[in-house]
């Protein structure tokens, strides 16, 4: 039996696909630390800023050990486990001294202390030295490390010196499944950019590009939606702001009603919004960073542009408006089919697990 665990809910659809194709898969669900341990981890981070406390606790060794204890309790409820497949490398799937069964990992990529482009949420604060050492041990002891992107795969090999043969790119998929509708979106001149943390998502660049586009194409508009976390965007002149989290239904409607989805992130290893849009036949305009160019293969999936360049982004949007919308949507949906999504990722993982 192979037990699947995860640090959050992102792994749900991947594990579902694995269960559908393998009778020896059991999903133990998300492994979370207790509230008391999280509080102690935050306090031990020794910071006078509440925001730093909330951020640092998740990387603390106290939380890692608690996750390991929780994982052990879950494993005891599933006797006969011969291997563990864990999403995330914050903690060992089992205590490092325990060798009852091996494990493999699924990951976006590692913490890289030498990469200045990493946003604050990827940097372990005061625990960076301890966390880096812990991750190296976790990755090194894993039988396989399944990276969602080739960008992540190369990071793992470079940062931790892993054997390239055990680091396997699997791709990624959406956070929800939805079927493409036959009709074209209702607003052929509307674009949208959806995401939380507007600084990292480059929403200021999106707004500037929207104003440039609006001057050239007065009917055009760009909807910027999600939790800003400190950034404000001035509305008007082609910019529509929805500064709050959206429900899944709202996200789907916005995707379906947009000519294309903009992902102008300054850092985004494997954004699910890209696959969510492609499965609905909505093209993407994304920055040429991290794993994004791997799934937005121009021109089929949309367009890729350099980050922090409003002019380049506006020109890409204008180019899409000048093209055939039906053809663009058909190409985007075909791109999703070729990428394989979670089903394709599960097939790669299953094939590797067969060699154990």
Walk me through this protein's architecture.
The protein is an alpha/beta fold. It has 2 domains: about 1-175 and about 340-355, Glycogen Phosphorylase B (Rossmann fold, 3-Layer(aba) Sandwich), CATH 3.40.50; about 190-340, Rossmann fold (3-Layer(aba) Sandwich). Helices cover about 40% and strands about 15% of the residues. It has 14 helices and 12 strands. The chain has helices spanning about 10-20, 35-45, 50-55, 60-75, 130-140, 150-160, 200, 205-215, 250-255, 270-280, 290-295, 310-320, 325-340, 340-355; strands at about 1-5, 25-30, 85, 100-105, 145, 165-170, 190-195, 220-225, 240, 260-265, 285, 300-305. It has a 6-stranded parallel β-sheet with strand order 2-1-3-4-5-6, with helices on both faces. A 6-stranded parallel β-sheet has the order 9-8-7-10-11-12, sandwiched between helices. Helix 2 (about 35-45) packs across helix 3 (about 50-55), helix 2 (about 35-45) packs antiparallel against helix 4 and helix 8 (about 205-215) crosses helix 12 (about 310-320). The chain is globular. The N and C termini lie close together (about 10 Å).
Quick structural gist:
By secondary structure, the chain is α/β, with parallel strands linked by helices. Helix content is 42%, strand content 15%. α1 (12-21) crosses α14 and α2 (35-43) packs antiparallel against α4 (61-76).
């Amino acid at each position: 039996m192979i037990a699947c665990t995860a640090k959050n809910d992102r792994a749900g659809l991947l594990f579902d696909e694995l269960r559908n194709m393998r009778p020896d898969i059991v999903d133990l669900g998300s492994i979370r630390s207790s509230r008391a341990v999280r509080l102690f981890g935050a306090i031990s981070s020794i910071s006078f800023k509440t925001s730093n406390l909330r951020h640092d606790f998740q990387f603390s060794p106290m939380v890692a050990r608690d996750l390991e204890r929780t994982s052990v309790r879950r494993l005891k409820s599933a006797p006969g486990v011969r291997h563990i497949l864990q999403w995330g490398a914050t903690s060992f799937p089992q205590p490092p001294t325990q060798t009852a069964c091996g494990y493999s990992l699924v990951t976006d990529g590692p913490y890289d202390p030498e990469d200045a482009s990493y946003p604050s949420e990827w940097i372990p604060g005061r625990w960076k030295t301890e966390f880096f050492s812990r991750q190296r041990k976790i990755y090194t002891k894993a039988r396989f490390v399944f990276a969602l992107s080739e960008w992540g795969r190369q990071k793992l090999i470079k940062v931790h010196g892993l054997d390239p043969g055990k680091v396997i790119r699997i791709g990624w998929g959406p956070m929800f499944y939805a079927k493409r509708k036959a009709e074209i979106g209702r607003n052929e001149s509307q674009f949208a950019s959806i995401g939380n943390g507007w600084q990292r998502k480059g929403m200021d660049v999106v707004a500037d590009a929207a104003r440039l586009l609006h001057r050239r194409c007065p009917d055009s508009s760009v909807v910027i939606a999600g939790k800003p976390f400190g950034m404000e965007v001035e509305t008007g002149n082609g910019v529509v702001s929805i500064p709050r989290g959206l429900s899944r239904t709202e996200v789907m409607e916005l995707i379906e009603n947009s000519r294309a989805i903009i992902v102008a992130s300054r850092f985004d290893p494997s954004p699910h919004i890209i696959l969510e849009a492609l499965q609905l036949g909505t093209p993407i305009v994304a920055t040429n960073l991290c794993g994004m160019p791997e799934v937005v293969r121009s021109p089929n999936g949309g367009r890729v542009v350099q980050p922090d360049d409003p002019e380049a982004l506006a020109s890409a949007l204008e180019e899409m408006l000048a093209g055939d919308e039906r053809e663009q949507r058909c190409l985007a949906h075909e791109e999703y089919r070729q990428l394989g999504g979670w089903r394709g990722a599960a097939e790669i993982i299953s094939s590797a697990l067969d060699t154990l």
